[in-house]
Amino acid sequence: MSEKKEQQDVKLTPLPEEQTGAEWQRPPAEELESYLRRMMQKRILVLDGAMGTMVQKYSLTEAQFRGERFKDHPKDLKGNNDVLVLTQPQVIEEIHTQYLEAGADMVETNTFSGTRIAQADYGLEEMTYEINKAAAQVARRACDKLTKKEPRKPRFVCGALGPTNRTASISPSVEDPGARNVTYRELVDAYKEQVRGLIDGGADILLVETIFDTLNARAALFAIAEWMEETKRAVRPPIMISGTITDQSGRTLSGQTTEAFYVSMSHIRPLSIGLNCALGSTQMRPFIQRLSQIAECFVSCYPNAGLPNAMGGYDEKPDETYEFLHDFAVSGFVNVAGGCCGTTPPHIAAIARAVAGVKPRVPQPPYGEMRLSGLEMLAWRPNMNFVNVGERCNLAGSRRFKRLIMSGDYETAVAVARKQVEEGAQVLDVNVDEGLLDGVVAMRKFMNLCMSDPDICKVPFMIDSSKFEIIQAGLECTQGKCIVNSISLKVGEAEFIRQARIIKRYGAAVVVMAFDEEGQAADKENKIRICTRAYKILTEKVQFPAHDIIFDPNVLTICTGMEEHNNYAVDFIEATRVIKQTLPGAKVSGGLSNLSFSFRGLHRIRESMHSVFLFHAIKAGMDMAIVNAGALIVYNDIPEDLLKLLEDAVLNKHPGATEALLEYAEKERARLAAGGSDGRAAKEAQEWRSWDVEKRLEHALVKGIVEFIVEDTEEARQKLPQPLEVIEGPLMAGMGVVGDLFGSGKMFLPQVIKSARVMKKAVAHLIPFMEAEKERVRAQAIKDGETVAADDGVDRGAGTVVLATVKGDVHDIGKNIVGVVLGCNNYRVIDLGVMQSCEAILKAVEEEKADILGLSGLITPSLDEMVHVAKEMQKRNLKIPLLIGGATTSRMHTAVKVAPQYKNSQAIHVLDASRAVVVCSNLMDEEQRDDYMEDIADLYADMREEYMEGLEDRQYVSLKDARARATRVDWPVMAKQVTKPSFLGTKTFDNFPLEELLPYVDWNPFFQVFQLRGKYPNRNYPKIFNDETVGAEAKKLYDDAQAMLKDIIAHKRLVARGVVGFFPANAQGDDIAVYAADADDERKESVATLYGLRQQAKNDDAEDPYRCLSDFVAPADSGIKDYVGMFAVSVGFGVDEMVKEYQADHDDYKSILVKALADRLAEAFAEKLHEDVRKTHWGYSKEETLSKEDLLKVSYQGIRPAPGYPSQPDHTEKTTMWKLLDAEKATGIQLSDSLAMMPAASVSALVFANECSEYFAVGKIGKDQVADYAKRKGQDIETTERWLGSILNYDN
């Protein structure tokens, strides 16, 4: 009954604006969907915004997540937002209320992870029903309160069914692409339990949302239908569906296009379908437009507040959201609008204003024709000629396919499927019926493998079996809309109806064979009779869409020698004509191989007969046929003599037609027996096979072609000196191309995984050769008397990588894909799974002797957990690279937030799975690792500086609050580690031997003075000499520098002088009181004060302190006798004389060269003196044994910050140091009026020994600190502001 007719015949509940009573009149359950449709025809409805974003604003603790009920629960619950409906229901209700007050017509229940599958990660799977029921009740209360308050604007509860943290379409296993970490049935049962809880709690609508894998969503829809049947509910709740397009390729994570996604969902006839998450409005626009152009239902859209920023947050303001959603509304794209990640009540209020008064979108009219889908849509159109259904993946139709499946060679069997698609099959038939085979297992395994190959699963499947349980197994593996082949009335009408209803529930089209209780229809009349009866049953009793019904009137064998068989082709063709005329919407199909069965082994005759039959059957209305797409002969290419014989036989033109064709066949058979050709021309060799081996390997990786990979890899091995060079050369180059294509949206995820598996085969071939080479080198080393490390028996492959999704996060699909790709590249991958605590992760790193740690996370709180893990890695003195990845992570966040916490090694952001191999390869290359990490470190340092400079809205805390969160030091424990210097007072160094400084020279800044910068991997000294652009010039400069150094040392042309001092000291607030060297015991009155500045820029992490240098010295009231050191050094004495000499000779080059060398020697003097301080003068680190590289990485205990630099930006503090050290008298180093040191080649610093001390930047400070600092120093504010001008957070 049409909705218009329904409204005429039934008195409907008035819409809100039509009601006159004081309270809203709720429509009965059976009318609710109709009521909502009527509302959506009147106006655009508003959905709420992000629950997670709002929950984060409450900063709930682990204890609050647990509540009283779960206080002793064995697993952490922080991050499990769903449990808050039980432990903090008032918080969730408050969030719902804020969205409703902002203008939302609908709110989603807080059940995004409300399935047994997702809750199992928190150990709360048994609470699933209760969580969902409580969530619906909480939302119901909020909606009812607002509806009572505003009866003309009723509010509705959408029961949210999230995607789960598993994917039914992607394998978690490198070795087995057919494996799955969740089954369709597990998903159905989980969703069914969730549906029951949501409905029992009062949900009005069921919203299946954030769909990244359509197969998961199809399981949810199946669960809803099954729940209705089991509960005998006559009325289905309205269903809304929302998918997620993950990037600009316009596909879901599992590879479907927007149109294919719609077709896969459309069988449920939802109230609405739409898109949400992953993208902001700008990026989502083309895809919501495409969806609106195809959807016959209403369309929803709730995008993110733009794309995540570098810190994982969202910057889009409500006014911007207004503009985007207003554009969607006036463009006629949407009927429901809302917000996803990053949106808040102000955003929803803006959306409500944006869509108010705008005419809602009008749904597309019913398409009326069949639509199927794989990763892409296949839609019947009026001008569509014919659809080829590939036949070779059928045990009954292909001897080769049967042999492969029966022998368990599924991988090669998949190649048969791929070839069918390559040769033109638009639908792929799969049949594994065989008496000696477990058909359910075989179907599931083969289909899962096919679903892992995007070149195959881009087309729809025809699941073909005579056993219904095998059909169901196949349907439960594919995310697209399939065809079931087949059912028939031979099982009786009741069973026929039961099977049809189940197929309808799966959302598949169906082939109906022309069989009934009496047997197979052979003649025209019986074909028409049975098909007509089946059509009426399906359309009238099952309400099966007519356009999804495909009849197979039975293609039977002709030319058997039996006269009654001669008209079989004609009967089929004529029955087709009548079916198409009398059964509206129905399609006709058939299997062609049966037709020519009499001519087995005579390929040319069989293929020609198929072409002749199709020529006439298509004219009669045949829509599709199961054929070998690559073996069809063009009708006009059939030789004339054979064509006439075939026309006569197929159309049964005269009694002798069969006999004439049989005679021709005998002659053909005799010719073949004599060694003739069957007429099939050998295909030309594929062009790419003639390319160079490097190019062939790249092509195979990009295209995912495994057929020739072993032989090409072997050819490359023979060509290159070492097998490892094949991996590091052409194979890595190919994976690099894959990464570039994926990053630009020209490849999508399933293709990347396919490429990785090709890589795995190549690496697997090389492994034995690499092992042999390793053993050869090992044996030679032993023979040469070298020490060789013992083998622990663990095969570490290319390296051991530990992967984990961090605590509080249950999303692991991206991580699993990284594991697959790395595994395919011979890495030993230890995947810890989801919800991993920092302790568990670092324990695994140590136990597995990991070379690399990779952290993953999807939700924003995971960013903070990653920072926490980085901090702990630093505390444990781990020194392995840390990889950061996941949807909310970014290179900027890694650079600004993660990397600074882990100074022992490098934190590196990895954009996607395709990049992981290149990153890990660089990190595992001993020759390139350091340069690669230094390159990253320099890049991240620049990014941090850029980020800090661009912070327009940076917030600051008061000085009082900053002091309250000073660096926490356990001074009673630390007291035991305080070391008294070997002397108190000062020590002077005059004419320090320059040759002792040479090992401490850092040459990299030297080359930068002359603007010589190499490119990775030749950025730094000494590899800069290998750089093709600057290498030669850098070597010449270096040689000149060495010659000048030799002259300087031999003739003592430069003099090194320095002074170091140690003094009793204690912290007094933000300052350090310095006592006389002979007052160590008394410490009554200070002789000087070192004034400190404290950080005030607001920290995102509540645990991060606001640092000041005084934090690293024991407070005066602690009773601990602490100390502070300082020094000033110079190697500038003699520079002016040398410069004058060179300038007199007009040699500017040497003038610059000597200044640069003096600077390097002064820095080397500081490095050398600081080392001596640690090991002897102060002696707090006597056992230190650090390499030059470790020194440059600041791997030592303590720090040496200098006044005028980030930790204490006030240059005036130098005057205090100069007085304490009597530096000018001791060394001759002077301070200018601007407090610059003279000679210029001078370095000064304070020295702190505390193991908690670390370098930091004070950053911008506020007026309150400037006033306090000026008062402490006895300066006027104007003078203080002049010296601190660059760090003020205000204009002065």
Secondary structure: elements and pairs:
Blueprint: H1 3-9, H2 32-42, E1 45-46, H3 51-57, H4 62-66, H5 84-87, H6 89-102, E2 106-108, H7 116-119, H8 128-149, E3 156-161, H9 184-200, E4 205-211, H10 214-231, E5 239-243, H11 258-265, E6 272-280, H12 281-292, E7 298-304, H13 318-330, E8 336-337, H14 345-355, E9 371-373, E10 377-379, E11 387-394, H15 399-406, H16 410-422, E12 427-431, H17 439-451, H18 454-457, E13 461-464, H19 468-475, E14 483-487, H20 493-506, E15 509-513, E16 515-516, E17 519-520, H21 524-541, E18 549-552, H22 568-582, E19 587-588, H23 603-620, E20 624-627, H24 640-650, H25 657-673, H26 693-703, H27 709-719, H28 723-743, H29 749-783, E21 800-805, H30 813-823, E22 828-831, H31 838-847, E23 852-856, H32 861-875, E24 882-885, H33 891-898, E25 907-909, H34 913-924, H35 929-949, H36 959-964, H37 971-974, E26 985-990, H38 1004-1009, H39 1031-1050, E27 1055-1068, E28 1071-1074, E29 1088-1090, E30 1122-1133, H40 1135-1144, H41 1148-1177, H42 1188-1192, H43 1213-1221, H44 1223-1227, E31 1230-1231, E32 1237-1238, E33 1242-1247, H45 1263-1273, H46 1277-1283
Parallel strand pairs: 1-8, 2-3, 3-4, 4-5, 5-6, 6-7, 7-8, 11-12, 11-20, 12-13, 13-14, 14-15, 15-18, 18-19, 21-22, 21-23, 23-24, 24-25
Antiparallel strand pairs: 9-10, 16-17, 26-27, 27-28, 27-30, 28-29, 30-33, 31-32
Helix pairs in contact: 6-8, 6-14, 8-9, 9-10, 12-13, 13-14, 15-16, 16-17, 17-19, 21-22, 22-23, 23-24, 24-25, 26-27, 26-28, 26-29, 27-28, 27-29, 28-29, 28-34, 29-30, 30-34, 33-35, 40-41, 45-46
